[in-house]
Amino acid sequence: MGLCSSCFKGSSEELITPDATVRRQQQLEAAERRRVENETRGIKDPEKVRRMQQKAEETARREEEAARMGGGQSALRWTQD
After folding, report:
1. Per-residue confidence (pLDDT) for residue 8, from 0 to 100
2. What was the pLDDT predicted at 80?
3. What is the 3-state secondary structure (H, E, C) of 16-80?
4. Which of 7, 50, 55, 58 suits 64 as a labelling partner, its CA being 20 to 30 A distant?
5. In angstroms, rounded to a whole number, what is the distance separating the alpha carbons of residues 23 and 29?
């Protein structure tokens, strides 16, 4: 009987749960990891995708700026000969 009693541990040796602030921080970190994993799921090169998005945003910004400056008319015009 004495051998089985070593399996039962007292309450002093129970796992200590982290306080609320530590637990919140761990949950935030886990949520951030899941968000990053979901964003990159199925993408072979995430950096390439990020560069393409930045390029598209820059192009859109330049088009908006050109429309504001030119009053909607472009400087280049098509001519027929």
Report:
1. 62
2. 79
3. CCCCHHHHHHHHHHHHHHHHHHHHHCCCCCHHHHHHHHHHHHHHHHHHHHHHHHHCCCCCCCCCC
4. 50
5. 10
